[in-house]
Specification:
The protein is an all-alpha fold. It contains 5 helices and no strands. Helices cover 51% and strands 0% of the residues. The model has no long low-confidence stretch (mean pLDDT 76).
């Protein structure tokens, strides 16, 4: 079977037009704005926040009171400002929240802000 050339499948590749390649590369450079590792780290932190808030409020994600923890906003604040802002956001939580606050502050160390201020 394998010795019969007429029954073997072949895959053929055709060379693309060379004039399209530089435009494709230029587009790729424009769309890659953020480091993939930074994005993954931020996503991991956001998932950790969701899980911890469920534990703190002892409910499902949909039942958590209206609460938005903005990582970029925290990164703009000095260390004590970050802690104060988190305490303010979590004031409705009846459980001890210091472990959550300490854990979040530890996790965001070294993160960079994702978007700069908008210029008008």
């Amino acid at each position: 079977m394998a010795s019969e050339p007429s029954t073997q499948s072949r895959v053929m590749f055709q060379a693309g037009d060379k004039t399209e390649e530089p435009a494709h590369r230029k587009l790729g450079k424009l769309t890659v704005k953020y480091n993939r590792k930074d994005l993954q780290r931020r996503l991991d932190i956001e998932e950790w926040i969701d899980g911890q808030l469920q534990l703190l409020f002892d409910c499902e994600e949909e039942e958590i009171p209206e609460l938005e923890i903005d990582i970029d906003e925290l990164l703009e604040l000095p260390d004590e400002g970050q802690r104060s802002r988190l305490q303010e956001l979590l004031q409705e939580c009846g459980k001890p929240k210091e472990d959550f606050i300490n854990g979040l502050l530890y996790r965001i160390k070294g993160l960079r802000k994702m978007s700069g201020p908008l210029k008008k």
